[in-house]
Amino acid sequence: MTSPVQLYVYDLSNGLAKQLSLQLTGRQIDGIWHTSVVVFGKEIFYGQGIGITAPGRSHHGTPLQVIDIGETAIDEDTFDEYLQEMKQHYTADKYHLLDFNCNSFTNDVIGFLTGGAIPEHIKDLPSDFLSTPFGAALRPTIDNMYRRPVPGAPAAPAPAPSADLASNPALAASVLQAVAAQAAGGQGPSAQAGHPLHATETLTAPLHPCTNPASFHNLLRTHRAVVADFTDQQCGPCRMIAPVFERLAEEKGVRAGMSGRGAAFTSIDIRVGQGNALAAEYGIRATPTFLFFLDGKKISEVKGADAAAIRSEVDLLLYQAYPPHPHTKLDAPAVQALSLNPILFTQVPALDTVFNKLSSNIKATPWPADAPASLDQATQALGTMLAYLKQRYPAADAPSATGKPAAQPAALGAWTSATHALASALPAEALFPLADLWRLAVLDPAAGAWCASGIASGASNPITILLRAYHRDTSARSLVLTVLRLLANSFAHATLARTLLSGAARTELTGVLVPALLHDHAGVRTAAASVAFNAAAALQKARVESVRLGGGGYADGEDEDWEIEMVSAVIEALDKERASEDVVHRLTACLAFLLRLSPFYEDQVLPMLEVLQAKSILLGKLEKGGCGEDGIAKKDVRSLVEEVAGKLCPA
């Protein structure tokens, strides 16, 4: 006779992660997942030790999601004996929000009951959160919360907040307090049922403990690369090497930023559960012993606490599992010397003049009765925006401020409402002074985060409003110029850059960018080339980081169709650009970043480059009349063009 097994899924943040994650981490995280197992009419979970309650009656309330795992043939008495043994391992003092949590426990229990594992969208990508600046900054604070005091030792000081947390401590504190309270067993409102959970929206431990063969074999089946640490809680060398192994799991574990590449790291204590059976299966006679698996097969092992040897084997395993992109061996000094920092338009105009021009445009236009805000409301909001910009960018003869003020959410909301109202009331050409004010405002990290959050959630935001205003009248040259400069400055904020390069936002950005690359006005082409460079540089930065972390250069979120469209548009723009060496420089650098380390390079991009005669077009810029009367003059630009043509484009 079999019994059904279910997994209950809860959100420890009670919705705060979904609301604030993009602003804090640069990633959309829909929840911080807590899981429990329901079997034999009981809900079993791990927090303050192993807890048992009637289904749905725990302090977490109603589950966000109920997943049917399958059936178990194990009887209830055997399961109760297993839980008694696990209570020695899953104790309250060992609990850690990141490293040893409820999901570690439920994965073990599911393995024992069914031979399976909790779904990948919950247990996988454990290092994703820690790879974000916010996660890295928050890690010491979380560690300090769970650090057990040493008898007789002075209390450890609380870690100083980093710049990432200090930029918005209220948000950080609210998320952390909500999660910690729920994880520790505090009362809180239950999460509401919502959308399916995704793999990149999980926060679990980077290390997966296994206490039975079923869990371990499932880990081997579901991951290309696996590193297993056979350990013993009574072994001194095991305890010494454990922190090194945990750091490797954080650095080299599976993560979204590398398109799911990386190794799964697991720790098997031979004194816990059926760990001794696993040790016997693989002939483990001493601890610690580290085994390395590729596609389910053991390929190497390290005996003893040899940190250098373990790291070397991990790197070799990842190299075999995910061979690096061929471009990692390409000698391209001119391309490698290019800065990955965005090109920004930071010149501050006479702000009163810009404001007066906008006011004049408003007065010249009848205010519609159905506008989203009244004329007085819009005018008042713009006045506060002007005052903020004057304080943030004081005139050269003004006293220097002690620090630049950050825009507050209430003010940003009012300015966005005013922008919406003006975009609905004024003709597109009359909006360029407003776009110029936002060009400066978006350099403020607080404004950048506001825009990113608005774009990601589909809420009203100035960038989307102004992009759509441009699409109403693509002949509005002054507006397209200032909107392009606003878009270029948006790449000063990493979160906003990622948001602009994904989903519908990328489509809208591309719709403005591609035709602007061929505009008849040199200033527009320069601004467009700057936006194209910034977008390609952001992509290249992610690829380079992937190489550094062992992902081989494959970045998260690569889109073949968009990259091919961009490569084609940049080559066409290079072909037609005869006047500006600066534009050619930016476009060539952009092309280099789009091509280098591209996952689509061999199969899709190379044939297209040949058809478009990219090499010939690039080399033509060096000839008389190719760009200016005598061709490109600057030595560094010539070197870059020659290198991109010779090493990244086919003959």
From TrEMBL:
Residue stretches making up the Thioredoxin domain: 154-319
Signal sequence segment: none
This protein's record includes keyword Hydrolase: yes
A Pfam family that the UniProt record links to this protein: PUL
UniProtKB keywords: Hydrolase, Protease
Record-annotated PPPDE domain positions: 3-143
Keyword Protease appears in the UniProt entry: yes
Single Gene Ontology BP annotation: proteolysis
PUL domain ranges (all copies): 336-647
Superkingdom of origin: Eukaryota
PANTHER family: DESUMOYLATING ISOPEPTIDASE (PTHR12378), DESUMOYLATING ISOPEPTIDASE 1 (PTHR12378:SF7)
Listed name of the protein: PPPDE putative peptidase domain-containing protein
Source species: Schizophyllum amplum
Taxonomic classification: Eukaryota, Fungi, Dikarya, Basidiomycota, Agaricomycotina
